[in-house]
């Protein structure tokens, strides 16, 4: 009989401790959840403000670009101008292939200033190429995968 009383008393104490521990866990969980909710609402608010500002400023830049385009009387190049540019590039390339000694002397006399100039051109061209790739893929890394994946 005494053994049963000791066991039942021990079980009651353990259940009270368990209830207290569960209440502590519940309070801790509630505070963690409220912190996450606050952080996510702050993040959503900041992102929506950023989106609104981006839309506003893109409209301002667009309108300003229209005004500059009209005031400067800009127009896209004609077909003849495009052909002329590419013909000149092709002609210069052919001249260099006929005179390889000029290419070699140019490379030998390549100085620091030319290296900086042409290096910056190369970086700009690579950056624009990369930007075009990102826009084309609609994401920064990799290509989107539109295939349907079946689960087995």
Automatic annotation (TrEMBL):
Provenance organism: Wickerhamomyces mucosus
Family affiliation: Belongs to the ATPase g subunit family.
Subcellular localization, as worded in the UniProt entry: Mitochondrion membrane
Annotated GO CC locations: mitochondrial membrane; proton-transporting ATP synthase complex
Statement: the UniProt record of this protein carries the keyword Membrane: yes
Keyword vocabulary terms for this entry: ATP synthesis, CF(0), Hydrogen ion transport, Ion transport, Membrane, Mitochondrion, Transport
Gene Ontology molecular function: any one: proton transmembrane transporter activity
Protein name as annotated: Uncharacterized protein
GO biological process: proton motive force-driven ATP synthesis
Entry keyword annotation includes Thylakoid: no
InterPro entries: ATP_synth_F0_gsu_mt
């Amino acid at each position: 009989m005494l053994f049963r009383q000791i066991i039942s008393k021990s079980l009651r104490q353990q259940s009270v401790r368990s209830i207290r521990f569960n209440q502590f866990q519940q309070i801790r969980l509630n505070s963690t959840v409220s912190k996450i909710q606050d952080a996510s609402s702050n993040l959503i608010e900041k992102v929506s403000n950023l989106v609104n500002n981006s839309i506003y400023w893109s409209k301002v830049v667009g309108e300003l670009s229209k005004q500059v385009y009209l005031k400067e009387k800009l127009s896209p190049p004609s077909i003849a101008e495009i052909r002329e540019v590419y013909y000149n590039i092709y002609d210069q390339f052919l001249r260099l292939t006929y005179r390889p000694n000029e290419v070699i002397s140019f490379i030998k006399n390549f100085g620091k200033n030319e290296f900086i100039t042409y290096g910056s051109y190369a970086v700009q061209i690579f950056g624009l190429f990369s930007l075009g790739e990102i826009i084309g893929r609609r994401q920064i890394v990799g290509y989107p995968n539109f295939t349907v994946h079946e689960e087995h």
